[in-house]
Design goal:
The chain contains six helices and three strands; from the N terminus they run E-E-E-H-H-H-H-H-H. Helix content is 46%, strand content 8%. It has two domains: 45 residues; 105 residues, Orthogonal Bundle (DNA polymerase, domain 1). A three-stranded antiparallel beta sheet has the order 1-2-3, covered by helices on one side. It is mainly alpha-helical.
C-alpha cells in the first residue's frame, strides 16, 4: 500500500490530509458514527491537536463537547434532575436564570477554568453586593451542573471544586459568626 505524502514529502498518518490551499485536516469518526474534523496550518500543529483528541478519546471525553456551553449542560441537568422538592428546584432554576445564564452560562464548557469561576463569584460579591450565603446557593447549582458535565464526559474535572471555600476565606466570613449566649 502506497503511503500518502504532503507537499514536503512527509508521510501522513491515517485520517490526515493536506488540502490544496496547504492546510492540514485530521478527520475521525466517533462511536456514534458522526464524522469530525480539525484543521491546522502546519503538520506539527495538527499532530498536537490529534494528540489532544486521542487523549480525550482515552479519557472518555466527548468529541462534540468543543462547542457545548454551560447553558447547554444546564438544560441537560434540568431535564434529568429528580428527587428535589418543587420549591427547591424552582429556586435553583431561578438562581441560574438570574445570575448565571448571561454571565458564565455563555462560556464553552471545555474552556471553563477555575479562575473563571473565582472571577464570577468575586464579581457577584464585590459588584452585585451579594451575600456569601447567596453565592453559596449559586455555587450549589453550578457545582451540580458541572458534575453532570464530568459524569457525561464533557470535561475531565469539576472546576468549581473548593472555589467556595477559598471565597469564604478571602472574605473572612468566620469573623461575622454569631456567638451563643451562656448563662452567667
Amino acid at each position: 500500500m502506497a503511503k500518502r505524502l504532503d507537499k514536503r514529502h512527509r508521510v501522513l498518518r491515517k485520517g490526515e490530509i493536506q488540502r490544496a490551499d496547504g492546510y492540514y485536516v485530521y478527520r475521525w469518526t466517533t462511536r456514534n458514527g458522526k464524522r469530525h474534523s480539525v484543521t491546522a496550518s502546519t503538520l506539527e500543529e495538527l499532530r498536537e491537536k490529534e494528540e489532544a483528541i486521542l487523549k480525550d478519546k482515552l479519557d472518555g471525553i466527548r468529541a462534540e463537547a468543543q462547542n457545548v456551553t454551560v447553558n447547554d449542560i444546564f438544560e441537560l441537568w434540568r431535564n434529568m434532575k429528580r428527587g428535589l422538592k418543587d420549591n427547591t428546584f424552582q429556586n435553583y432554576c431561578y438562581m441560574y436564570e438570574t445570575f448565571m445564564r448571561n454571565e458564565i452560562g455563555r462560556l464553552r464548557i471545555q474552556i471553563l477554568k477555575k479562575s473563571d469561576i473565582k472571577r464570577f463569584y468575586n464579581l457577584l460579591v464585590d459588584q452585585r453586593n451579594l451575600k456569601i450565603s447567596t453565592v453559596d446557593g449559586i455555587h450549589t447549582v453550578l457545582h451540580q451542573i458541572l458534575t453532570v458535565a464530568v459524569e457525561d464526559g464533557y470535561i475531565r474535572t469539576n472546576v468549581s471544586d473548593n472555589v467556595m471555600k477559598e471565597l469564604k476565606q478571602s472574605h473572612n466570613t468566620d469573623s461575622d459568626r454569631r456567638k451563643a449566649l451562656t448563662i452567667p
